[in-house]
Amino acid sequence: MTNLEQLLQSDSGQEQKETIVLKFKRAQSAVKRQLDLGCAPHEYQLLLKQHEAYQAALAVIETVECNK
User: Fold this and answer.
1) 10: left (phi > 0), else alpha (psi -120 to 50), else beta?
2) Rounded to whole angstroms, what are the CA distances from 51 to 5, 12, 25, 57, 65?
3) What Pfam families does the record point to (predicted)?
C-alpha cells in the first residue's frame, strides 16, 4: 500500500482527498493553460507527460476511494 492509499484510507482521508484532488486539478489546469498557449515541441512533450501524470494520479485517487 502506498503512502497515498494509506492517507486516503485514514480517518481524515476524505478531507485529505479533497485537498489533494484540488491541488492536482489546479496543477493540471496550469499545465493545460501552458499547452494551450503554445510552446516549443520539446517543452510540449514534457508538459503533455506532466498533464497525463496528473490525470493518472487523479484516477488512482478515484480508484482508492471506490475500493474502500
Assistant:
1) beta
2) 21, 27, 10, 10, 21
3) T3SS_needle_E
